[in-house]
Amino acid sequence: MGCNIGLVFVISTEKNLHHPIHFLFCNLPLNDILGTTVIMPRLLQDILRETSEHYMTYVDCVVQAYFVHVFAAASHYVLMIGLTVRLSRCKYKIESPFCDNASLFKLSCEDSVAINNVYGIISTVVIFIFSLGSVFITYGKIAAVCITSKNKALNSKAIKTCGKHIAVYIIMFVSCAIMFFFHRSPEYSENRKLASVMFHIVPPGLNPLVYGLQTKEIRQKTFKLCCR
User: Fold this and answer.
1) Is the pTM of this model over 0.90?
2) Using CB atoms within 10 A as the burial measure, which of 15, 22, 32, 111 is most buried?
């Protein structure tokens, strides 16, 4: 949280950083702040409480699930939440460290749960394919430039930045995939819980370092502010 808030502060207060690329970097910490704020306070509270005291209202659960999916991936998840809220409930136990759409529709005993399940699988697979395809195309072009370029400094900078980005992306992608697909396998519930916590902790912690301090202008301005 400190790194992400600090990065937003540096970019917003330094006029020399008011460029499109830096505003793009500003979007990541804002998104990470949202995701961390929604998940971590409640999770830490539950860690410090007895198991018998782990409860929340259904409305609070829906609100948390909404912001979890806003953080995770955009509008189609909001549609899934809308479908889920229409279902009647016959259960009360959430088998997850936090509320998400899959946890919510498990509270229902209606036959239409299968529709939500199918929609969730199809939409998530499409997003995974689009995400992997975008990363593959982008890094394919970067690799092509590095191969044809004779500028060693440029190639070295590209390798350092891309290597760290790929590491964060793999952690996020694998954690998200485990969290999603293991929802349908009760025997792997502990693995899913660990993956879901990693998804909301590791990338937000690494993004300011990868995208912030790796950028020369942001790094210089940050050190200048610290020296003051």
Assistant:
1) no
2) 32
